[in-house]
Design goal:
With 124 residues, the protein is mostly beta strands. It has strands at 4-7, 10-13, 18-24, 33-39, 46-51, 57-59, 67-72, 77-82, 91-98, 113-114, 118-123. It contains no helices and eleven strands. A hairpin with a 6-residue loop joins β4 and β5 (46-51).
């Protein structure tokens, strides 16, 4: 089993920035596919960003150009740098990890491991 622990959420004004971190347990972090999802009140959990084991990245159209996902394999950590935040970015943000054989889905599908989430609130 892999455990994921998010941190860095908080309250920020529209136009501001936040950086989220997610630390993973396990021996094989460098082989994980990693991602961030978010869930706003009353809505389904949605894809935000992913980074593959080889550092290839993908982003949801809603955050493209504003958010950056990165990873530090030496620290077993994946990051989400969020800039130019909007009120509609308000959500609980979840870290996700899949084994190498499973890509992080952008439109649905299976996630092997979830974090517990961290709240991001953007005031307008």
């Amino acid at each position: 089993q892999v455990q994921l622990a998010e941190s860095g959420g908080g309250l920020v004004q529209a136009g501001g920035s936040l950086s989220l971190s997610c630390v993973a347990s396990g021996r094989s972090f460098s082989t994980y596919n990693l991602g961030w999802f978010r869930q706003a009140p009353g809505e389904e959990r949605e894809f935000v960003a992913r980074i593959n084991w080889n550092r290839g990245t993908s982003y949801a159209d809603s955050v493209k150009g504003r958010f950056t996902i990165s990873r530090d394999n030496a620290k077993n950590t994946v990051y989400l740098q969020m800039n130019s935040l909007k009120a509609e970015d308000t959500a609980v943000y979840y870290c996700a990890a899949n084994n190498l054989r499973n890509a992080i889905p952008m439109t649905g599908g299976n996630i092997d491991y979830w974090g517990q989430g961290t709240q991001v609130t953007v005031s307008s």
